[in-house]
Amino acid sequence: MDFSGKHVVVTGGTGALGTTVVAELLRLGAACTVPYRQEAEARRFSHRDDPKVRLVAIADLADEAMIDRVYAGASPLWASIHIAGGFAPGSVLETGRDALMAQLDGNLVSCFLCCRAAVTAMKAGGAGGRIVNVAARPALEPRSGAGMTAYTVAKAGVAALTIALAEEVAKDGILVNAVAPSIMDTGANRKAMPKANFDAWPKVEEVAATILFLASPDNRVGRGGIVPVYGKA
Fold this sequence. Notes:
The chain is of the alpha/beta class. It contains eight helices and seven strands. Strands 3-2-1-4-5-6-7 form a seven-stranded parallel beta sheet, with helices on both faces. It is globular and about 45 Å long.
């Protein structure tokens, strides 16, 4: 894959999966815009001093004006990869309106607004592009989302958004897809579930490889896909 001369926005780029995606994009020649919410994220980001990285402070990925500022500085835009999101467990009885809206804003609204800004930038450039969203296993298997219903609803919305948008913008040469990971093998997940079978979890490098192909010029025909990346889990 070759991303030489191509600009890519990566939300959630300072996290475990995002850092891996950004590292590979840089290795393959891309320039990256990486929004972040907290200064601590930017300070520990291993690629912060790379001249091909543009870090942008943003308080809220569900704020339309803030999103537009991020994408205004990312032209010409080839790809937009939306990894940012948030997880909170809770049954319906345990989830009030505020908790529900936090999951919708953090996962679905932010993704929708980033897709909107990306499509605007790609259409202006006239060269097409790629959008990759991150759903989750419960988006494809809602029964597995029992006990985390608000999160499941939000990620199912990301999957539906991906499929609908893919049809909407295919004529413009913009291919839209998503990955749906199971629990990934990260330090935080190992700490939260110390008795789990870590070997069954997909590695962030493996999930990143799928994202990179979907975002690359090598993906010439795939659109509207929600790709399960479960590993052995």
